[in-house]
Design a protein that fits this description.
Layout (H helix, E strand, L loop, with lengths): L1 E3 L3 H20 L5 H23 L13 H13 L10 H23 L9 H32 L3 H7 L1 E3 L2
Antiparallel strand pairs: 1-2
Helix pairs in contact: 1-2, 2-4, 4-5
Length: 171
């Protein structure tokens, strides 16, 4: 069964955020103008996603992916026992990862911006927080990508394809 899940704004946000993070993590130099402008663009993307999360289509709304502890434990139990339960939108663990990444990238943007202000320029704890948040984001992204691959294989649903086309083919 083919189901429309991710609207164009969600998909554009996702891939633009990927591009922005990769650019600032690997292609620009911290403190340089290009790094700052990419950071502003990423902050703008987060702002757009915050608005879209309140007014968007069903699966893009934040209310659609607020997992309960029971749902998270249920998914973990499903994974441990080999039970295949496909979620139309975000799975409970997937939702936790999305919240983690949104909040982490927002904090990276905030600490990055803070370093450009008179109040926090050269303040060591702000720089260290920014760097620690980037490392946390990198680790989270690796876990996210691995989980997408593992869950795609385990469930028989091509999750990366759905973030390109907007449609999930559910078994």
């Amino acid at each position: 069964m083919k189901v429309k899940v991710w609207d164009p704004v969600v998909r554009l946000f996702h891939w633009s955020l990927v591009a922005g993070f990769v650019a600032n993590d690997f292609l620009t130099r911290p403190g340089k103008e290009a790094h700052q402008w990419v950071g502003y663009a990423v902050a703008g993307l987060i702002g757009l996603r915050l608005v879209w999360g309140m007014v968007a289509t069903r699966h893009a709304r934040f209310a659609d992916f607020l997992p309960s502890p029971a749902a998270v434990l249920g998914q973990m139990q499903d994974m441990a026992t080999g039970r295949r339960r496909v979620h139309e939108g975000h799975s409970p663990l997937g939702a936790l990862m999305i919240w983690n990444l949104l909040l982490t990238v927002a904090a990276i943007a905030a600490t990055g911006y803070a370093q450009t202000t008179l109040a926090f320029f050269g303040v060591e704890w702000v720089e260290e927080a920014h760097e620690a948040l980037v490392v946390w984001a990198e680790l989270s992204i690796v876990v996210h990508v691995l989980a997408v691959v593992v869950e795609s294989r385990r469930l028989g649903v091509n999750l990366p394809k759905s973030m390109v086309t907007g449609y999930k083919t559910l078994p």
